[in-house]
Amino acid sequence: MNVESPTQIEPARIDAPAGDLPDLVAEIAAKAEGLGRALHPQTALHLASLVRLMNTYYSNLIEGHRTRPRDIERALAGERDDDQRDLMAEAAAHYRVQEAIDRAAVDGELPDPADPNFILRLHRDFYADASIDMLTGRGGERSFVMTPGEWRSRAEHDVQIGRHIPPSSARVADFMSYFFSRFAFEPKDGMRMTAVGAGKAKRILALATAHHRFNWIHPFPDGNGRVSRLMSHAMALKAGIGAHGLWSVSRGLARGLGPGDAGRTEYRKYMAAADAPRQGDRDGRGNLSEAHLVGFAEWFLKVCLDQISYMSSLFELDTLSKRIERHVLITDGLSPESNWLLQEALIRGEFERGAAPRLTGLPERSARRVLKELTDAGLLASDTPKGPVSLRFPSDTQDTLFPKLFA
Ligand SMILES: Nc1ncnc2c1ncn2[C@@H]1O[C@H](COP(=O)(O)OP(=O)(O)O)[C@@H](O)[C@H]1O
Ligand SMILES: [Mg+2]
Hints:
This protein has 17 helices and five strands. With 407 residues, it is an all-alpha fold. The protein has two domains: 292 residues, Fic-like fold (Orthogonal Bundle), CATH 1.10.3290; 85 residues, Arc Repressor Mutant, subunit A. The model has no long low-confidence stretch (mean pLDDT 96). The structure holds adenosine-5'-diphosphate and magnesium ion.
């Protein structure tokens, strides 16, 4: 075989899932269906913003870039600290790219996540605000400035990840066309026989293997990990397991399944294992190991299921309601009556400001003061100054409302 043939990514998919895989796929589909279903759509919408913040935090953390949730919020508000300008710009960009994906999904306009044009745009948008310093590759002797939204194409872009040497830069465009032909969810003419197509179970399985094969090709000089996690997020939405943005892959990939440090090394370990060439006659018929691809897919889908389960427990109406009550109790500056306003927003999604006296049982002026405490704390907000208020989840509520969400 030509060493630089795109078919080198075979086996790209798992055609006959066995072992744990069929159950995992079914459980993911069922659990994702239930995630957030009891929540009011308004509440779910604002929780999805928090999840986006969390995904941004963990995806950049995997790359070794640590930006505190509070600083991501500040970055989104346009602030930049001198000593972490690049990190803040990167976090804001990651958040915005994911937001655009989530919005497109809601509007039914999310493109095929495996489409090279979509992937190139993710990369371009992610790096749109990047400094020259962030775009400068320092691999070998020569340094170069990466162009956002372009594949690796010249020899100086060649990369190595650990022991894995991805295809040479000149071949990346062809590899990514082939990638599309194998991972299209909405195949174009001529791809129907080879692509994933519409089946939900097929899409869930492909979500896992596409993540590895994308990174195996490593189509960009830098940013492959972040772009691949955004692509996987988009695939999850398109596969119908995105739960309107109430979970995302990065937290699980960063933390793994095992405890502490052991868990944190799993992602790299399973990715590296799946780089292996075919291990003898009984390891499929492709260039790469089928057994290790299956191992990776099992791990990846267990991680997804673990995250969906965890977010389900966190976003359970009862749990949220109790934690909100506790948050009011332990937070200075919040009157006990504010709990009633927060509970109303949780259950009904939003309420008119004029309803505060009725909801708190307080006279007009006191009720307005309680409402102001909540808007000052950022727990309630509205799109227009006088409009109805709904729940928000600013980062200083995270310790009480969503323990362990962040590392
Ligand atoms: N052995 C491996 N084989 C394939 N991909 C890998 C391997 N190890 C790590 N990766 C992927 O490569 C990414 C790092 O590549 P890089 O281009 O620096 O992306 P980013 O800058 O977004 O972190 C990791 O986040 C991971 O997704
Ligand atoms: Mg990198």
